[in-house]
Amino acid sequence: MAGREALHANGDGWAAGPGGVRMWGRYGAAGLFLLARNSSGPVVLMQHRAAWTNFGDTWGIPGGARDLHESAEEAAVRETVEECAIDPNHVSVVGAEVTAGPFEAVAGLPGGWTYTTVIAQTSDGNTLATTANEESKELRWVPVDQLEELQLIAPFRQALPRIRQLIEPLI
């Protein structure tokens, strides 16, 4: 029974997004907007997603599916550790906001899907070393004022004005 419960708690799978589009994460998804500073000012860790991933060949923040018993903050940090090999002890979460959803169930896909952007800072303010896993083409610390120059995941691009408001006190 424990194996079946663990399988059921895993968030990997599809749910209904806007207009019935499939969105990854049976229990929603979360990503980590991780801020640091370098010589150019405030930077954020960005991920160029591998072509085979959901929204492949676009840039976004590291993140992914939430498991059943995870908070958005826990999921965002866990996914960033998996995708970027950062040390979670050097990450300080400062806030979170749902930036997409919830969406209605359609065509056999469960509804209620949300995406939560988790705002965090590196604990010492400096950029962290990263190592990309197979879900990434590239990881890069990007100046906050240059984010729009990247080919961003559409929902992230739409949420960016609100995210900028949330991070303004931090930068």
From TrEMBL:
GO terms for molecular function: hydrolase activity. It comes from the Bacteria. The keyword Hydrolase applies. InterPro entries: NUDIX_hydrolase-like_dom_sf, NUDIX_hydrolase_dom. Keywords: Hydrolase. Pfam families: NUDIX (PF00293). This is NTP pyrophosphohydrolase.
